[in-house]
Design a protein that fits this description.
Elements: H1 4-27, E1 56-59, H2 60-63, H3 71-75, E2 81-83, E3 99-101, E4 112-116, E5 119-120, E6 139-146, E7 160-166, H4 169-172, E8 175-182, E9 187-197, E10 200-211, E11 231-245, E12 248-262, E13 269-283, E14 288-305, E15 312-318, E16 321-331, E17 338-358, E18 365-388, E19 391-412, E20 418-423, E21 427-441, E22 446-457, H5 461-465, E23 468-470, E24 473-476, E25 484-498, E26 501-513, E27 516-522, E28 525-530, E29 533-547, E30 550-564, E31 583-591, E32 598-606, E33 609-610, E34 618-619, E35 622-632, E36 637-644, E37 652-656, E38 659-662, E39 667-674
Parallel strand pairs: 4-7, 24-28
Antiparallel strand pairs: 1-6, 2-3, 4-5, 6-7, 8-9, 8-39, 9-10, 10-11, 11-12, 12-13, 13-14, 14-15, 14-16, 15-17, 16-17, 17-18, 18-19, 19-20, 19-21, 21-22, 22-25, 23-24, 25-26, 26-29, 27-28, 29-30, 30-31, 31-32, 32-35, 33-34, 35-36, 36-39, 37-38
Length: 676
């Protein structure tokens, strides 16, 4: 039987002959008048009511000029964007890379839906986002929509949707490459090749980041076993796009990645890897359609080192998981003032944890543990946009059948005696969610908008079945977790008072019912539980201005978030959710003094937040300054200089009873870029 990796690799391979043959077959036909074929490599156009939900677009120039070169820093410039921890994807445990929006509570599983060319990116077992595999230089644009989603794959868009769109051949150029090194001797190398293929194109891109890293442990807490946060990560992506007819476009892609990291102590090594493939068929005729199928093979491994004995206590040696799914969206012709979207989507995640526990003193194995299961979601959706002059109305509804099945946890002694066992009953449910909104172009300069929505997220297999230890705290899994559901409202405006100036303001009120959180039961014991609710109310503001060669971008989010637990057994009512800052904002200034030149600086502030649910450990506020410079040397070659945390601000990323981890210190990069 073929392996999972073979099957994943085969999916784009099966599609590529069709991609290559399509333009060749067209050339073999008798000569006829040429018909213009436009190949975009994208999905269907955005519906006219998208502005009702206050979406934010990020252009390619912003993507490729981040001081750190990381996608998470680019997204950090969006008001309301939040990672579970403040660490970036070089110095965080990969399984903690959850993403949410609007301060809806820190969670290692993503509450926001992240799509790459329409494909969900969340890890099938853990729900984290493989950030190191999402190279900004391979992207053409990003759109962030805050608030519960109701369209394709809407069951994962509890807090919003982040849509990553790959760059086409024109944006990438025939050949591009960059090589940079920093003052610690770490390197970042990337490159892309793009070529026309008949009326379509093929792109191939790769990236390799490696380095010994920095000490995440403060000077006064280091011991002989303390080591820098070393990292070694690579990714490669092949993508082909070609027309089958003037109105139908075939897209095929494959993504391979691996990421190795060491965190805090010698031997505390983690590994994550993936092999993803997808095929997409987009029709832009009178009956528009978007058909997508994907498969993902992922794995994760992690070694836990005792913080007192500095010996191995846990070897999570293997966590294979598989994600597969697809969607079919149809847009029938219903008139020039209407866009009707009808569709179905499906997602299935399966995986199994395989780990061994060891005695920190003797090194002897004490337990063997296995845990895993299957979750799936079948969604039916319909949305309708209606343009009435300057007013656009939109409404949509989803019906999701979610299934949680085959769940288990089993721990045995080395001799095979059962220590603990959970066999979770299978369960399923239907959930109806919706969203609706309106956008009114009151004048050439002013647009008013309002929206309301319901959202849904299934618990990840990790949350349901996998307990874990960050010594000395044990966090238990919970096979009885219920789906999270969100109810939200928002209203705002977009103002363009002058040429090149835009201002956006949004007021929102979102509430997550049955929010999943790590709840403290005893000083060193926590369990994943459904809180009655988390409510987040606040304001998001953006300001953009361009005057000649100078550009300005500003974003600010202020959120009043609290746990609603009145009447529950948990003493958390009115507490602020863990990992949730009240204030976050950024300011970026860019200057283009001549063609090919780019000088920019970014100031970012994240307010104080609590590490835990009981508000006992504080992560202080942090303000960082980054910079980027691109200086042309020839027509194709440029000098690139980057600076991270130039003021060397102390950024606390974890605080467990005074034991802390730190974020990136001052880091200076220099290198060359070809094909800028």
């Amino acid at each position: 039987m073929p392996s999972r990796i073979t099957l994943v690799a085969a999916l784009p391979a099966l599609a590529l002959p069709i991609v290559f043959a399509a333009p060749l077959a067209a050339q073999e036909q008798p000569a006829e008048p040429a018909e213009v074929i436009v190949v975009t490599g994208r999905g269907l156009p955005e519906p006219p009511a998208s502005p009702a939900y206050g979406a934010v677009d990020i252009a390619r120039e912003t993507l490729v000029s981040a001081p750190s070169g990381r996608i998470e820093e680019v997204l950090g410039g969006v008001a309301g964007f939040q990672q579970f921890r403040r660490s970036d994807s070089r110095s965080a445990n990969p399984s903690a890379q959850g993403i949410t929006l609007r301060a809806l509570g820190g969670n290692a599983s993503s509450r926001a839906l992240v799509l790459l060319d329409g494909v969900p990116m969340a890890d099938p077992f853990f729900g984290y986002i493989p950030l190191s595999a999402l190279a900004p230089e391979r992207l053409g644009s990003v759109r962030v929509t805050r608030g519960g989603g109701s369209g394709p794959f809407g069951a994962g868009a509890l807090a919003g949707t982040i849509e990553l769109t790959s760059a086409d051949a024109a944006a990438l150029g025939p050949v591009s490459a960059s090589l940079l090194a920093n003052d610690r001797g770490e390197t970042e190398a990337s490159g892309t090749v793009a070529t026309a293929l008949g009326a379509g194109f093929v792109t191939l891109g790769g990236r390799w980041d490696r380095g010994e890293g920095f000490f995440t442990t403060p000077d006064d807490q280091r011991v002989a076993a303390s080591v820098p946060a070393a990292f070694d990560a690579w990714s490669a992506r092949l993508r082909a796009v070609a027309p089958l007819t003037p109105d139908i476009e075939l897209q095929a892609s494959g993504l391979l990645f691996r990421d190795d990291r060491t965190l805090r102590f010698a031997g505390a090594d983690s590994m994550s890897e993936g092999q993803d493939a997808s095929v997409r068929l987009v029709g832009r005729g009178a009956w528009q359609f978007d058909a997508l199928a994907y498969v993902q093979a992922r794995n994760f491994a992690n070694v836990v080192i005792s913080s007192t004995r500095f010996t191995r206590t846990l070897d999570q040696r293997n966590t294979p998981s598989t994600g597969l799914g697809g969607k079919l969206e149809l847009r029938p012709p219903v008139g020039p003032d209407h866009v009707l979207r009808l569709g179905v989507d499906y997602r299935r995640s399966s995986g199994e944890l395989q780990e061994e526990a060891y005695n920190a003193f003797s090194g002897a194995q004490t337990e063997r543990r296995r845990a895993g299961g299957v979750t799936s979601d079948l969604g039916l959706f319909a949305e309708h946009d209606w343009r009435i002059g300057a007013l656009v109305l939109t409404g949509g509804v989803r019906a999701d059948r979610s299934v949680i099945a085959d769940g288990f946890y089993r721990a045995v002694t080395p001799a095979g005696a059962v220590v603990s066992e959970t066999i979770a009953p299978d369960r399923s449910d239907w959930t109806v969610t919706w969203r609706g909104g309106a956008a009114w172009q009151a004048s050439d300069a002013l647009r008013l908008r309002a929206a309301a929505y319901r959202g849904l997220r299934l618990p990840a297999l990790n949350e349901l079945y996998r307990p874990f230890v960050v010594f000395p705290v044990v966090t238990q899994a919970n096979a009885d977790l219920r789906n999270e559901r969100l109810l939200g409202f928002e209203a705002g405006f977009d103002l363009r008072p002058a040429q090149g100036v835009s201002l956006g303001l949004t007021l929102f009120d979102n509430e997550v019912e049955d929010a999943i959180a790590n709840v403290t039961l005893a000083p060193n014991l926590r369990q994943r539980q459904n809180l009655p609710a988390i409510r987040a109310r606040g304001v998001e503001a953006t300001l953009s201005a361009t005057r000649g060669a100078i550009g300005f971008e500003g974003a600010l989010a202020w959120t009043d978030a609290e746990v609603l637990g009145e009447g529950a057994s948990l003493p958390l009512d009115g507490f602020r959710p863990a990992q949730t800052p009240r204030l976050a904002g950024s300011v970026a200034v860019a200057w283009k003094p001549a063609p090919g030149w780019l000088l920019s600086a970014t100031l970012r502030h994240v307010g104080a937040q609590f590490e835990d649910d009981l508000e006992s450990d504080v992560l202080p506020a942090a303000t960082t300054l980054g910079a980027y410079a691109q200086v042309p040397l020839t027509q194709k070659l440029a000098l690139v200089l980057r600076g991270e945390n130039l003021t060397d601000e102390t950024v606390v990323t974890r605080n467990s009873g005074g034991s802390v981890d730190l974020g990136t210190p001052r880091t200076l990069w220099a290198g060359l870029r070809w094909g800028y």
